[in-house]
Amino acid sequence: MKNLPPGQKELDIFPRFGLPLYAKRFPTVVDKIILSIGGDLDEFVLSEELNSVPKTNQVSDFHCVTTWSKLNLKWSGYRFIDFYNSFILPKVSGELTFVVLKGQDGYKTSLPLSDLLRENVLLADQLDGKPLNIEHGAPIRIVTPDHYGYKNVKHINRIEFYKEEQKIKQGYLNFMDHPRARVAQEERAKKGPQTFFRWLYKFGIQGTIRDFEKATEEYRAKLEK
Ligand SMILES: Nc1nc2c(c(=O)[nH]1)N[C@H]1C(S)=C(S)[C@@H](COP(=O)(O)O)O[C@H]1N2
Ligand SMILES: [Mo]
Predict the structure, then answer these.
(1) Is residue 4 part of a domain?
(2) For 160-196, what is each residue's pLDDT tens digit?
(3) How many Å lie between the centroid of ligand 2 and the Cα of residue 26?
(4) In 63-187, which residue ranges form alpha helices assigned H by DSSP?
């Protein structure tokens, strides 16, 4: 049996999950990748150009801050570092250190650039050999197994690169969003004893799964009309 990171428990299913605020928000563009790039460099948009980056497959575990983990997910996509070297590095002078990630649903978070340049960080467009569905991040998402789920931005449509750290309003309440959120270090929240958050969050898991499922069913039913 695999050793789970501190405070995590294995879940059999891979639920659609997040803050209740996002349960009823869905991506509007699901069959085409459109990534706008900005920050401390000239704005541009990437779409089919991404195909020039080699694709990769990765099996990795996913750890939500609320203590559930789903093991051995089969992703495919582009390594973030390959995307960075191909499209960002050639356009900048000086050092970038900080990245803001935004999703079509208005979700937003940030990470130090060095954390995103790790080998196992993907811009993933497939799960189990199929294009991502609306549950798990269509058309493209961040997968960063060493960071809690909340850094794994779904439906990503904008990435901003900065020379210095920015104050941004996170998709989560600010106190909930640790600037790094590394799973192995149990960086669950910005402040406070981290084991307290294990206990606090775990009560919300089942209700959140139900709320997200219900919202997804309603949304799909509306789409079919
Ligand atoms: N765009 C967007 N990305 C998001 C979220 C969200 O609400 N919106 N929730 C985050 C949280 S808290 C988790 S645990 C994971 C859940 O990913 P899943 O729905 O594929 O299980 O997505 C993360 N990325
Ligand atoms: Mo999460």
Answers:
(1) no
(2) 999 999 998 887 778 889 999 999 999 999 988 999 9
(3) 17
(4) 80-83, 113-116
Q: Is residue 49 part of a domain?
A: yes
| Contact indicator for 8, 63 with CB cutoff of 8 Å | yes
Owner of token pair 């659609």: 16
Q: Is the pTM of this model over 0.85?
A: yes
- In the predicted model, is pLDDT for residue 40 greater than 80? yes
pLDDT digits (tens, 9 = 90+) for 106-116: 999 999 999 99
Note the ligand closest to the C-alpha atom of 65.
2
Q: Ligand 1 atom 9: the closest Cα is on which residue? A: 18
- C-beta of 18 in contact with ligand 1 (< 6 A): yes
Residue 2: inside a domain, yes or no?
no
In this structure, is residue 37 part of a structural domain? yes
Contacts of 105 (CB under 8 A, 6+ apart): 22, 25, 26, 27, 154, 155
Total domains, the chain: 1
Question: What separation in Å is there between the alpha carbon of 146 and the centre of ligand 2?
Answer: 13
Strand 35-39 and strand 156-162: the pairing is parallel
What is the residue range of 55's domain?
9-224
pLDDT surpassing 70 at residue 15 = yes
Question: What's the CA-to-centroid distance between 222 and ligand 1, angstroms?
Answer: 22
**171: CATH:** 3.90.420.10
